[in-house]
């Protein structure tokens, strides 16, 4: 009843340029208050990577929300980082390694980083590259609102943390920076 | 049409009833909630779907220069930003007095059909297939996409890759994956190069083949459980959709067609630039979302349904061969029973996905895509209306612009708003069929969600934040005191 997917899958990516080893997703909508945290951080990070002359090692992607096709962006990467804003996140931010979680499911038009990893395994039949989540606490998410003062302060702290991570892009080093086990 | 007061919308004596709320809080602004009022014998007296519609956009866009609208509106919705991008562009075409060049219109059409393809693929393969393939009240631990991946691995993969292909069409035509700037007032700002065309052409036959298979999957589901699929949440309704001048399905442009539930045409090929002469919006005290209705029938009788099921059944034909063949088979199935079924939405949606894939191939082979005449303009107007058939149904953008080029008024009627009353009717029918007089279980409550999901409502408005709860069920006594609560997180974990 169902046709094979694999020949097309391999061809589809032949025309894709070789991916940068480090992929950084920023998830959020910059017109919605603190949902702008990740896009704004990504912009600051891009400028800093240019100054440091290491930008070619990174691909920076921004989207409003995560969906299944983002799994295909992870192929061929050494490390993946998801930056997001969180409502119930301990301030100023949390940083942890995301685990593909088969008990987690897709119920809405947006999915979690863990579900993206699970999708990767479904599509490629192998574990995803090591993936981490930097979640910065936000306070308000109304359309048209600017980032809150608290978010501005947390972005400063998160930016310093990101610079640390970018200077040593090793999964083991990032694991050691996990804030949830400190 | 039956009186909706007697139709589970409002209970006669709500004070003596207990209340159950199904509260899917999928986003900060956009969320829906279902409330049911039951008596001591679990008989249902009232069912309401409340959707907290996002209404702040009109204010957000006021004071902006009109040429910003096609980009700014994409921040309204993270689910279908391209639909808003194109609808706003069409409205701005009127503002600048433009008649699109062939290249501009075809690039926009390609973008739009890419959006339809990826949206329908996501909905069927990832949001609905767990219910459809495992059963509405099957083991909740299995009833998810992970369960689908285990039992039907090819389906799960195809869903991802169909979605990815549609996103690639959008990237090529809009210039970027998000915040696309491809469509502008009066045209587009880029064409499709030969390299981009060939990149997309390479895989289109596979996309068409998978789309045909998807149509076959839904047909099989109907054949295997005819009674359920024909009757689940079934109700009679008027319809509204765009059609081309010759009556063909056209998801990008056309005139408005409305038919009553007996198939009589109320108006046809109506110029949507004066939509307010045929469509008005009502309000109800219990919902923030408006209730559009056909003006000639009035607010109580004039509600209608939009979206794939309406478009496939109410167009005269689909102008691509495989999708038209699929439409004919759909209409003929079991003497036409599927065409009026709420679950017929899924079949119709896959026919539209096949049509979109065929349209993409046809457009990619059109040399106009490589044209260089991209923008036109004419006599400046103060008002612009743009209407398209978005993945979920008719989408209306309406703007007024002052002499300083600033937007001073805006009105949007999104697809989910058009379907507000129709979704309420659907879940009331499901409540009558499956819940009335029975002890509520997760599986039974999921029947309500299945009916809502058939419409593919857009409850999300682009805010993404970890930690929100998409589903809460509250059981309260007659005094409103909480008896128990059940929450399901965004990743599906119950607590």
Helix content of chain A: 25-40%
Could you say how many structural domains of chain A there are in total? 1
Shape of chain A: globular
Number of alpha- plus pi-helical segments of chain B: 15
Give the total of beta strands of chain B: 16
What keywords describe this structure?
A: 182 residues; alpha/beta; Rossmann fold; five-stranded mixed sheet; 35% helix; 18% strand; globular; B: alpha+beta; Cytochrome-c3 Hydrogenase, chain B; 2 domains; four-stranded mixed sheet; 15 helices; 16 strands; 20% strand; disordered N terminus; disordered C terminus
Describe this structure as you would to a colleague.
The complex is a heterodimer of chains A (182) and B (495). By secondary structure, chain A is of the alpha/beta class. Chain A has a single domain, classed as Rossmann fold (3-Layer(aba) Sandwich), CATH 3.40.50. In chain A, 35% of the residues lie in helices and 18% in strands. Chain A contains six helices and five strands, in the order H-E-H-E-H-E-E-H-E-H-H. Chain A has helices spanning 6-12, 37-52, 70-73, 113-124, 149-167, 171-176; strands at 22-27, 58-63, 79-86, 93-97, 131-137. In chain A, strands 2-1-3-5-4 form a five-stranded mixed sheet. In chain A, strand 1, helix 2 (37-52) and strand 2 (58-63) form a beta-alpha-beta unit. Chain B folds into two domains: 4-52 and 438-488, no CATH class; 58-418, Cytochrome-c3 Hydrogenase, chain B (Orthogonal Bundle). Residues 1-5, 24-30, 461-473 and 483-495 of chain B have low confidence and may be disordered. At the A-B interface, helix 1, strand 2, strand 3 and helix 4 of A face helix 1, helix 4, helix 5, helix 6 and helix 7 of B.
């Amino acid at each position: 009843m169902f046709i094979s997917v694999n020949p097309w899958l391999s061809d589809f990516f032949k025309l894709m340029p070789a991916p940068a080893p480090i992929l950084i997703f920023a998830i959020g909508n910059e017109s919605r208050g603190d949902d702008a945290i990740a896009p704004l951080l990504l912009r600051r990070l891009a400028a800093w990577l240019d100054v440091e002359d290491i930008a070619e090692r990174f691909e920076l992607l921004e989207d409003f929300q995560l969906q299944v096709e983002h799994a295909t962006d992870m192929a061929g990467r050494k490390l993946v980082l998801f930056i997001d804003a969180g409502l119930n996140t301990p301030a100023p931010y949390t940083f942890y390694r995301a685990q593909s979680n088969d008990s987690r499911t897709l119920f809405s038009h947006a999915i979690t980083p863990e579900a993206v990893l699970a999708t990767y395994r479904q599509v490629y039949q192998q574990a995803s590259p090591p993936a981490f989540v930097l979640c910065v606490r936000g306070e308000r998410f109304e359309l048209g609102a600017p980032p809150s003062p608290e978010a501005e302060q947390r972005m400063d702290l998160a930016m310093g943390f990101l610079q640390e991570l970018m200077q040593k892009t090793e999964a083991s080093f990032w694991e050691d920076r996990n804030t949830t086990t400190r | 049409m039956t009186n909706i007061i007697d139709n589970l919308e409002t209970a006669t004596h709500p004070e003596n009833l207990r209340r159950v709320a199904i509260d899917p809080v999928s986003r900060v602004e956009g969320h829906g909630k279902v409330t049911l009022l039951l008596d001591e014998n679990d008989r249902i007296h009232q069912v309401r779907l409340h959707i907290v519609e996002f209404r702040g956009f009109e204010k957000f866009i006021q004071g902006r220069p009109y040429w910003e609208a096609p980009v700014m509106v994409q921040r309204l919705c993270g689910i279908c930003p391209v639909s808003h991008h194109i609808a706003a562009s069409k409205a701005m075409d009127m503002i600048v007095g433009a008649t699109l060049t062939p290249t501009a219109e075809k690039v926009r059409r390609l973008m739009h059909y890419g959006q339809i393809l990826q949206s329908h693929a996501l909905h069927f393969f990832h949001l609905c297939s767990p219910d459809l393939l495992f059963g509405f009240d099957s083991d909740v631990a299995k009833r998810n996409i992970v369960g689908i991946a285990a039992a039907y691995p090819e389906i799960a993969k195809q869903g991802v890759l169909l979605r990815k292909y549609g996103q690639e069409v959008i990237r090529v035509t809009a210039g970027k994956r998000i915040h696309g700037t491809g469509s502008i007032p009066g045209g587009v700002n880029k064409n499709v190069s030969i390299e981009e065309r060939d990149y997309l052409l390479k895989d289109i036959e596979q996309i068409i083949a998978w789309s045909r298979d998807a149509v076959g999957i839904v047909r099989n589901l109907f054949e295997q459980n005819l009674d359920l699929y024909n009757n689940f949440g079934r109700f009679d309704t008027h319809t509204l959709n765009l059609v081309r001048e010759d009556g063909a399905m056209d998801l990008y442009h056309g005139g408005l067609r409305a038919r009553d539930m007996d198939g009589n045409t109320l108006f046809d090929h109506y110029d949507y630039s004066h939509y307010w002469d045929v469509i008005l919006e009502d309000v109800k005290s219990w919902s923030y979302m408006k209730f559009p209705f056909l003006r000639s029938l009035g607010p109580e009788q004039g509600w209608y349904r939009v979206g794939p099921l309406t478009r496939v059944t109410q167009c005269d034909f689909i102008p691509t061969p495989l999708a038209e063949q699929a439409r004919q088979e759909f209409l003929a199935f079991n003497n036409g029973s599927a065409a009026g079924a709420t679950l017929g939405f899924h079949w119709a949606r896959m026919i539209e996905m096949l049509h979109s894939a065929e349209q993409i191939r046809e457009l990619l082979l059109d040399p106009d895509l490589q044209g260089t005449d991209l923008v036109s303009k004419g006599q400046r107007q103060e008002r612009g209306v743009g209407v398209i058939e978005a993945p979920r149904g008719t989408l209306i953008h309406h703007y007024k612009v002052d002499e300083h080029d600033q937007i001073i008024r805006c009105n949007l009627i999104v697809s989910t708003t058009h379907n507000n009353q129709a979704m309420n009717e659907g879940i009331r029918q499901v409540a009558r069929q499956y819940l009335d007089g029975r002890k509520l279980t997760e599986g039974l409550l999921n029947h309500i969600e299945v009916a809502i999901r058939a419409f593919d409502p857009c409850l999300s408005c682009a805010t993404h934040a970890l930690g929100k709860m998409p589903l809460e069920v509250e059981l309260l006594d007659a005094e409103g005191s909480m008896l128990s609560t059940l929450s399901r997180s965004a990743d599906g974990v119950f607590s």
